[in-house]
Amino acid sequence: MKVMRQTELFATLPIDKLAIEQQALKQGYRLIAGIDEAGRGALAGPVVAAAVILPAGLRIDGVDDSKKLSPETRERLFEVIMTQALTVGVGMGSPALIDDINILQATRHAMLEAVTQLAPQPDYLLIDGITTIDSPHPQKTVKKGDSLSLSIAAASIIAKVTRDRLMVGLNELHPGYGFAAHKGYGSATHMAAISRIGPSSVHRMTFGGVKEHVSCRSF
C-alpha cells in the first residue's frame, strides 16, 4: 500500500474558499470585497476589474478561478453571483490608458474604479495577486487568490464574463481580427490579422506583437 507524502496529502484536501474571508471576519471586518481582473495579457481591448461583496458565510457551488471554468459555466455563475452578491462593481482601463500609464497601473486604476462603485462600500479588500491599490480601505493581497478565496473567484468570473461580452461587441465594430473567438489575446490568427491589416483603435500600441505594426494601423 502506497504511503502518501505530506505534500501529496495536502494536495488532495479540499480548499476552504471562505477561510481567508473568515480570518477577516474574526478581525472585525464585515463587508469584505474580493477583487480580480481580466484581460491583463491581451493585445486588444480594455483590462477589466471587478469587486464583489458576498453575504458573510455564503457559499456558491462551482465558483472558482474563471480560467478553470468553461464559458457556459462562467455565464451561469455570473448570473448567480449578480443575484446573490450584496454589491458588485466593475472598472476598466482602456487601451489608451494602458498605453499611457502601463498595464500594471491601468489594472490598479480599474480595480480602484470597481471598488468605488460598490454600495455599500467595503471595509476590507482581498486583491488577487501581489499589488495593492490606492484605496483607503484596509487590504490584503493574495497570490492565486482566485483559487483560494470565494470572493476573489467571484470577482474573477464577473470580470471575465464582462470583458468577454465586450470583446464580442468589439468584434462587430472591428471585423477581421476575430475578437469574438480569442477575446483579444495573442492567438496565431490574431497575430496574423494584425500583421495583415494592422492594429485597430482598440489595440494596445505599446505591446509586443502590436507596436511593430503601428505604422499600418487600420483606422
Concise summary:
This protein is of the alpha/beta class and 219 residues long.
List keywords for this structure.
single chain, Nucleotidyltransferase, domain 5, 9 helices, 5 strands, alpha/beta, elongated, 219 residues
Helicity, as a percent range: 40-55%
Spell out the helices and strands N to C.
HHEEHEHHEEHHHH
Radius of gyration over C-alpha positions, nearest whole angstrom: 19 Å
Total number of domains: 1
Which fold does the CATH topology refer to?
A: Nucleotidyltransferase, domain 5
Mean pLDDT: 93
Strand percentage: 5-15%
Number of helices: 9
What's the architecture, going by CATH? 2-Layer Sandwich
- In total, how many beta strands? 5
Low-confidence stretches: 6-13
Described by strand count, sense and barrel closure, the largest sheet is:
5 strands, mixed
Q: Strand order across the biggest sheet? A: 3-2-1-4-5
For the record, the CATH class is Alpha Beta
Report the end-to-end length measured between terminal Cα atoms.
66 Å
Could you say which overall geometry the principal axes of the C-alpha atoms support? elongated
Give an account of the 3D structure.
This protein has helices at residues 6-12, 19-26, 71-84, 95-101, 103-116, 145-148, 150-173, 179-182, 188-197, and strands at 32-38, 47-53, 87-93, 124-128, 139-142. It is an alpha/beta fold and 219 residues long. The chain has a single domain, classed as Ribonuclease H-like superfamily/Ribonuclease H (Nucleotidyltransferase, domain 5), CATH 3.30.420.10. A hairpin with an 8-residue loop joins strand 1 and strand 2 (47-53). Helix 3 packs across helix 7 (150-173) and helix 4 crosses helix 5. The longest helix has 24 residues, at 150-173.
